[in-house]
Amino acid sequence: MEFDSLRNLLYVVAAILFIFGIKGLTHPRTAVRGNLLGLAGMILAMIVTLVDGDLMPGWYWWVGGIVLGGLIGVVAAKRVQMTAMPELVALFNGFGGIASMLVAGAVFHETIAKAAERMGVSGESDRDLTYWMGQVIADAGMGDPVQVYLATVISGIIGGLTFTGSVLAFVKLREWISGRPMTNPMLKAGNVVALVGSAIFGAVLLVRPDAWWAYWALAACALVGGIFFVLPIGGADMPVVISLLNSYSGLAAAATGFVINNTVLIVSGSLVGASGLILTKIMCVAMNRSLTNVLFGVMAEVEEGPSADEVYAGKVTATTPDEVAMLFDGVQRVCVVPGYGMAVAQAQHTVRDLANLLEAQDVEVIYGIHPVAGRMPGHMNVLLAEADVPYDQLKEMDEVNAMMEQVDICLVIGANDVVNPDARTNPTSPIAGMPIINVDQARTVVVVKRSLSPGFAGIPNPLFAAPNTLMMFGDGKKALVELIRAIKEN
Question: Distances in Å between the alpha carbon of 178 and those of 164, 235, 270, 483?
């Protein structure tokens, strides 16, 4: 068997491992196996690529890269807390984008260098550099030169935008800058200028492939565009942004696969790109918002609703852990609805301790998970998995809503807009039509929250003033610790 055939066969095996790895990641019980399958596929793809590319003479470069990257990965795995997963995922997306941009640029420069060398050796003055670049590409079996140039442009633009956009998403998630949506028209104008600039320089590269500077000019425009792309977006919309940037990193990798004629990179990049786009669509549907409005930080224009004073004045019932503990006496089913506040308070382990205590008293405990709760897709699932919450207790929104009327106590921890009944009952609300968890239909609702401050929509939540709602104000973790103490004493 020729090595080309063996290489393609091994790439297919690696791609199959990636697919089964992704499948394994869909369930916590098979997640570890999925990770290992993906790791095996990546190792196989790396070995085949290194051998096929005749990179052994410069082994110290790629060995150094593997060692450095491996060390960073090990340190991150050991030190990064589960609550910081959104930031880490954002950085991973960014690293994927910048890697694609740099690889495409390096291959492009290598092609120009080889073409210039051939042109000098040939002595054919009637052949320009573009012609010899085409010959280099053809001899390397990389396909049609125009296709390679187009893939280079796409990789540079998407990779650059993904890198700076992901870094800015990381900064926003770390709250180093404001997470509020920004609607300054200059941001939109800057975004348009950056993208138009990238397109112009990309067109120059397609017309004059020997214009090496055009690639770095379009990459620079894309890097600037990534900043303008993410800056207007509010922190609460980060699940959508992270999904989209994840998709972009995959698309950039797939484009780079066409540049270097690497089958497994095309396949794996396409898998990531497609899954990211699907997830982005799911996130937008869950928020009842268009992708355009999310990207430009736009909320629906509606009539001005009642103020917080009008909604809450004299209607909010505050409670204490000791009072709530008495409510748990004799209940049969409790539903926990976590939100971003649980992540901020790092209360997932305390939630699990509370559930263990209730289950020891023959109380059924379930968890209602909203698709966009938190700051990344699956944020609540990740935190609860870290606390060893059984996966079969996690209920998706539609499933838990069907059970809500049979819930004795619904414990809402740090969630706001995703449990706001205005989305269901008020057609003039900014979140009208947004799918929510119908916690107000439970017999009793206990909301653990620092204050009555609004969520990302900036509107009051009538749930907090509902007659069947009790507000237990305070830090999520501390409040739950006190609640556990009170239940034990009760």
Answer: 17, 8, 33, 33
Number of CB atoms found within 10 A of residue 283's CB: 24
Residues 271 and 128 in one domain: yes
- Same domain for 129 and 273? yes
| Token couple for 197 | 């600039």
Distance between CA 446 and CA 89 in Å, rounded?
32
In the listed set 64, 79, 94, which residue is the last one of a domain according to the structure?
79
Identify the CA nearest to 10 among candidates 43, 56, 36, 53. Answer: 43
Cβ neighbours of 245 (radius 10 Å): 30
Nearest CA to 255 out of 278, 210, 222, 283 is that of 222
What pTM value is reported for the model? 0.83
Neighbours of 313 (CB within 10 A): 10
What is the C-alpha to C-alpha distance for residues 92 and 97, in angstroms, rounded to an integer?
Answer: 9
Integer CA distances (angstroms), 127 to 167, 210, 338, 378, in order: 44, 13, 67, 56
- What does the pLDDT look like over 267-320, one tens digit per residue? 999 999 998 888 888 888 877 777 777 666 555 554 556 677 777 887 899 999
Measure the CA–CA gap between 128 and 130, rounded to whole angstroms.
Answer: 6
Q: Which residues are designated catalytic?
A: 417
How close are the terminal C-alpha atoms of the chain, in Å?
75
DSSP single-letter state for residue 271: H
Question: Does 100 lie in the same domain as 36?
Answer: no
Q: Phi/psi of residue 469, each to 5°? A: -110, 135
- Domain shared by 274 and 371, yes or no: no
Compute the distance between CA of residue 351 and CA of residue 336 in angstroms, rounded to an integer: 8
Taking phi over 0 as left and psi of -120 to 50 as alpha, with beta for the rest, 299 belongs to beta
